[in-house]
Amino acid sequence: MATIMLVEDDPTMRSLLKTLLELEGFKVLQNLETTPDAISREILQAKPNAILMDVHLKGANGLAILEEIRAHPDGKSIRVMMASGLDVSEACKNAGADKFLLKPYNPDELIRWFKKESSSP
After folding, report:
1. What CA–CA distance (Å, rounded) separates 96 from 94?
2. CA 48, CA 75: separation in Å to the nearest integer?
3. Which residues contact 69 (CB under 8 A, 6 or more apart)?
4. What is the dihedral of CA 18, 76, 34, 110, to 10 degrees?
5. Which tens digit of pLDDT belongs to each residue from 49-67?
6. What pLDDT is stored for residue 36 in this prediction?
7. How far is it, in rounded angstroms, from Cα 37 to Cα 40?
Protein backbone atom coordinates (compact mmCIF):
# COMPACT_ATOMS: atom_id res chain seq x y z
CA MET A 1 0.00 0.00 0.00
CA ALA A 2 1.48 3.33 -1.08
CA THR A 3 1.73 6.15 1.42
CA ILE A 4 0.65 9.63 0.37
CA MET A 5 1.26 12.77 2.41
CA LEU A 6 -1.19 15.63 2.11
CA VAL A 7 0.26 19.12 2.48
CA GLU A 8 -2.93 21.17 2.36
CA ASP A 9 -3.91 24.01 4.70
CA ASP A 10 -7.66 23.90 4.08
CA PRO A 11 -9.11 21.48 6.68
CA THR A 12 -12.19 20.64 4.60
CA MET A 13 -10.14 19.89 1.48
CA ARG A 14 -7.65 17.88 3.54
CA SER A 15 -10.46 15.79 5.06
CA LEU A 16 -12.11 15.15 1.67
CA LEU A 17 -8.80 14.18 0.06
CA LYS A 18 -7.90 11.89 2.97
CA THR A 19 -11.24 10.09 2.71
CA LEU A 20 -11.01 9.77 -1.09
CA LEU A 21 -7.48 8.40 -1.03
CA GLU A 22 -8.17 5.99 1.83
CA LEU A 23 -11.21 4.63 0.00
CA GLU A 24 -8.86 3.87 -2.90
CA GLY A 25 -6.56 1.88 -0.61
CA PHE A 26 -3.80 4.41 0.08
CA LYS A 27 -2.29 5.07 3.47
CA VAL A 28 -2.65 8.83 4.03
CA LEU A 29 -0.47 11.02 6.21
CA GLN A 30 -1.50 14.57 6.95
CA ASN A 31 1.05 17.31 7.31
CA LEU A 32 0.77 18.83 10.79
CA GLU A 33 3.47 21.48 10.60
CA THR A 34 2.99 25.09 9.51
CA THR A 35 6.42 26.57 8.89
CA PRO A 36 8.33 25.79 5.67
CA ASP A 37 11.35 24.22 7.40
CA ALA A 38 9.15 22.10 9.67
CA ILE A 39 7.02 20.94 6.74
CA SER A 40 10.13 19.87 4.81
CA ARG A 41 11.52 18.02 7.85
CA GLU A 42 8.18 16.29 8.44
CA ILE A 43 8.04 15.10 4.81
CA LEU A 44 11.63 13.84 4.83
CA GLN A 45 11.10 12.01 8.14
CA ALA A 46 7.84 10.39 7.00
CA LYS A 47 9.32 9.23 3.67
CA PRO A 48 5.99 8.95 1.83
CA ASN A 49 5.82 7.41 -1.64
CA ALA A 50 4.10 10.54 -2.92
CA ILE A 51 2.96 14.00 -1.84
CA LEU A 52 -0.03 16.09 -2.81
CA MET A 53 0.93 19.67 -1.96
CA ASP A 54 -0.90 22.93 -2.38
CA VAL A 55 1.24 25.65 -3.94
CA HIS A 56 -0.27 28.43 -1.82
CA LEU A 57 -0.14 27.50 1.86
CA LYS A 58 -0.85 29.83 4.78
CA GLY A 59 2.53 31.09 5.89
CA ALA A 60 4.45 28.91 3.45
CA ASN A 61 5.23 28.64 -0.25
CA GLY A 62 4.75 25.13 -1.60
CA LEU A 63 7.27 25.76 -4.39
CA ALA A 64 9.99 26.69 -1.88
CA ILE A 65 9.18 23.58 0.16
CA LEU A 66 9.36 21.45 -2.98
CA GLU A 67 12.76 22.89 -3.89
CA GLU A 68 14.01 22.21 -0.37
CA ILE A 69 12.78 18.60 -0.53
CA ARG A 70 14.39 18.08 -3.95
CA ALA A 71 17.70 19.46 -2.66
CA HIS A 72 17.85 16.67 -0.04
CA PRO A 73 19.06 13.22 -1.19
CA ASP A 74 16.05 11.48 0.43
CA GLY A 75 13.64 13.84 -1.32
CA LYS A 76 14.67 13.13 -4.87
CA SER A 77 12.70 9.86 -5.13
CA ILE A 78 9.43 11.12 -3.61
CA ARG A 79 6.79 11.67 -6.30
CA VAL A 80 5.21 15.12 -5.92
CA MET A 81 1.93 16.41 -7.29
CA MET A 82 1.39 20.13 -6.84
CA ALA A 83 -2.06 21.76 -6.96
CA SER A 84 -3.29 25.34 -7.23
CA GLY A 85 -6.27 27.39 -8.29
CA LEU A 86 -3.90 29.35 -10.54
CA ASP A 87 -2.11 27.83 -13.50
CA VAL A 88 1.43 27.75 -12.16
CA SER A 89 2.28 24.47 -13.87
CA GLU A 90 5.52 25.76 -15.38
CA ALA A 91 6.77 27.08 -12.03
CA CYS A 92 5.90 23.75 -10.39
CA LYS A 93 7.74 21.81 -13.08
CA ASN A 94 10.78 24.08 -12.71
CA ALA A 95 10.75 23.53 -8.93
CA GLY A 96 10.80 19.75 -9.42
CA ALA A 97 7.15 18.66 -9.39
CA ASP A 98 6.25 15.43 -11.14
CA LYS A 99 2.68 16.54 -11.81
CA PHE A 100 0.52 19.66 -11.56
CA LEU A 101 -3.25 19.75 -11.21
CA LEU A 102 -5.32 22.89 -11.58
CA LYS A 103 -8.02 23.25 -8.92
CA PRO A 104 -10.78 22.31 -8.93
CA TYR A 105 -9.50 19.04 -10.27
CA ASN A 106 -11.15 15.82 -11.26
CA PRO A 107 -10.77 13.25 -8.45
CA ASP A 108 -10.45 10.48 -11.07
CA GLU A 109 -7.34 12.14 -12.52
CA LEU A 110 -5.85 12.45 -9.05
CA ILE A 111 -6.47 8.79 -8.24
CA ARG A 112 -5.22 7.59 -11.64
CA TRP A 113 -1.92 9.40 -11.17
CA PHE A 114 -1.34 8.10 -7.65
CA LYS A 115 -2.20 4.54 -8.69
CA LYS A 116 0.14 4.77 -11.67
CA GLU A 117 2.93 6.18 -9.51
CA SER A 118 2.47 3.58 -6.77
CA SER A 119 2.72 0.74 -9.29
CA SER A 120 5.87 2.11 -10.96
CA PRO A 121 9.13 0.37 -10.02
Report:
1. 5
2. 10
3. 40, 43, 44, 51, 75, 78, 80, 96
4. -30
5. 999 999 999 888 999 999 9
6. 87
7. 5
